Amino acid sequence: MKRYIGLITMLIGMFFSQQVFASSSSIFKSDLQDAAEFYKNGKYKESAEVYQNILDQKMENGAIHYNLGNAYFKNSQLGKAILEYERALRLMPRDRDVLFNLQHAESLVKGPSVDANMPWITVKLHNFNFDEILKFFLWVLFLSGTIIIASFFLGYSNTTRFILAGLSVVILSATFCAMIIKKNMEHGLAITMTQSDVKFEPRKDATTHFVVYEGTKVRIKQEVDGWHKIERLDGKGGWIEDFAAEKI
Amino acid sequence: MAKRIFLIIFIGLLFSAKLVWAEIQFSAEVDHNTIGLDSYIQLSLNVSGAQDVAPLTIAMDGFDVKYLGPSRRVSIVNGQYSSSVSLNYALYPKKVGSFEVPALTIEADGKKFTSPEIKVNVVAGGESGTAGAAAPIQNLEDKLFLVQQLEKKEVYVGEKTKIQLALFVSDLQVRDIQYPKMEADGVEFEDYAEPKQTQQIVNGVRYNVVLFDRYFYPKRSGDIVFKPATAGCQMLIAKRNNKNVPGQFGTMFDQDFLNDFFDLQEKRPMTVTSKEITLKVKDLPQENKPEKFSGGVGNFVFDISVAPQQVKVGDPLTIKMSITGEGNLRDVKFPDFADIADLKVYDPIIKLQGNAKNLEQVLIVKNKNFQEIPAVKFYYFDPTEETYKTIVKGPFKLSVLPPDESEQPKVVAYDNQVKTIEPEKLGEDILFIKDQVGELHPTGKRFYHHWMFYLMWLLILSVWGGAYFYYSLNMRLKTDTKFAKSLKAPRHAKQGFAKAAQYLEQQKVKEFYDVLFETLALYMANKFDLPVGEISSAKLNERFKNNESWQSVAWDLANIFEECDAVRFAQANISVQRMQESYLKAEKIIDHLERVWR
Fold first, then answer.
1. What whole-number distance in Å separates Cα of residue B367 and Cα of residue B383?
2. Which ipTM value was assigned to this complex?
3. Which domain covers residue A82, as residue numbers?
4. Distance (Å, rounded) from C-alpha B585 to C-alpha B566?
5. With contacts defined as CB-CB under 8 Å, which chain A residues touch B444?
6. Distance between CA atoms of A47 and A36, rounded to whole angstroms?
7. How many domains does chain A fold into?
8. How far is A220 from chain B (nearest CA, A)?
9. B140-279: CATH class
10. Residue of B432, B436, B450 lying closest to A21 (CB–CB)
């Protein structure tokens, strides 16, 4: 029996660790070395190309996005740099290097300082990515299920069982809501790649409402025939051509 | 009592009267055929022989028509009852000339009645027609009108500009003049200035003029249309006595010659409308436009003061700035100090008072090496000269002292020496790339996309299910004795058969049959929840006589029990082969019962 328990524990541990998706980076080893070497020698454009090539082969991690963001930044491509830092942040939400570089890059974005008035929960959820919140949800589900079943063997009273079940439901509901909020927070976010006029209508000759500068974070609300309906974080909105912004 | 008697007499008279309803008659009459522009005609539509008549809507050239209301008359003459209704209208003349009250038609009791046309004359001045000047005014619009005019026809965006509305009045008495209502898109209006009164002669006619001045700021370029403005007022006209009928008492009583002494006048509400005008608005020139243009358009004076001139690091410094003059002060921005790193800048307090805009702001000097506030430049656009202008004030010398020793940061060293920390100058750049990239994984692959995710949950749910099943089984074993004994029966039988097999091998006949009987009896007792002492072939047959599956084992069980009794109590000799057969039969019985008797 103890043998089975050990096996199950090990499998669960593996399951919840990052090892599930681990894949050897050895096949990209030489590419990664080349990209780093280019960067160290100040050849930022070449470095960015190599990192981008790795990402084009549908493999990624936070560090690659971070390094690519650095290469773009040094190559004076502020919009792309911020985009890659944001992508890195989705995979490594509490990485200090990414946060520092992103903050520095955002400080160089032109135009008025646009601050979104974010609620407390949204600020806190920035510290976690979706996978982490989902894992927490599943851990709570597993533990609460196990504790409630254990309470039968340990002879707990029905009152104790109800309290345990109630607590579990509250924590699970809160975590589930956090997952939904996080999904909505990430939905449609994009970074502008160039300075663009935001129009009132999806036409080139429409009146300009305001200007977004390279590296501005916006939310894409609608996509229509080569145009994106966007909303800046302060709530101002309008239409820009689709090539002007790239989704995170 | 007296009231009651009077009421009874009145009702008696009413019923004694010959209730004769006269035929319906309809007529129209005016109180004057000739009036001046400052008077009005009362038109009465008299309907006799009808109770209720709806008022007519009358449109008439040269007049404004106003319905005054009905008047009713009931009379009993020589016992004959009659009633009539008069619908009264006021006809206010708008211009001089001969006009006609048109034929009017009413409907009563399903019939139509039409009045004849009535000719009326409107003369300039008073009713006599002699009050007019050398060039008598023919229309009311010429006696009372509103004109809107702009100070300039072409201005810059944001330039302070005046619009003037002039109400012209001649040969009329006008009261309760209201501020005109004006409307224009792309314009921000100030409040009206106090109205002024003056006199002007237009085309030889003297007018009293009320002037309304109002400043505004165009907010966009292009043509701005000022829609027709309207002003309300009350015109005084001679009061009419409704009871007077022209001709009854002669014209002397119709002439209200006492009106001026006793204020016997009425107010006629009037709305005066101006014409539409257009203003051309130009954009500010882009050429030589300063980067820090304040947005001010006009002629301004800028001043600034700094106090105190001697401060310690960390102490507050007060800046006061003022902008005065004519222009769009509301939109003017003050110069700021955000670019100066050695100053901590607090939010300013800005007040607008008349033609002055004042700012008061607190600054804190952060560095003792900061010795002056650089020159402050205020840029604005002068529309008169059509150029951008700059007013420069300063620089302002400061004497900045280090903070008190007790306020300075200290480093306490091991040797107790106190050292101050110089502010560290930090460069700004991004951090270096990560050398250790770590493991890669497929792009966009979330961990819930992996097959292990589902396998693990299957496993976890199985463990939960198994645990619950185990718990339920345990609970039943504890609470259901019959079920527990039934579950134990085959296990005990297996142990008994193992023991019997040993005795069979050792050919210990008595012990073998003892164990065999004990095993079968215990099995039956557990299986059927009976006391062990009561187990016998006869009792079991009696209990299960109607059970078909029992019948197939009953004979064999009876034989085994007989053999057991024969050996155990009569010391009978039994061969080994017989023992083996009994053993197999016993196994077969239990096997059969386990299969069919669940």
1. 42
2. 0.80
3. 25-107
4. 17
5. 58
6. 7
7. 3
8. 19
9. mainly beta
10. B450
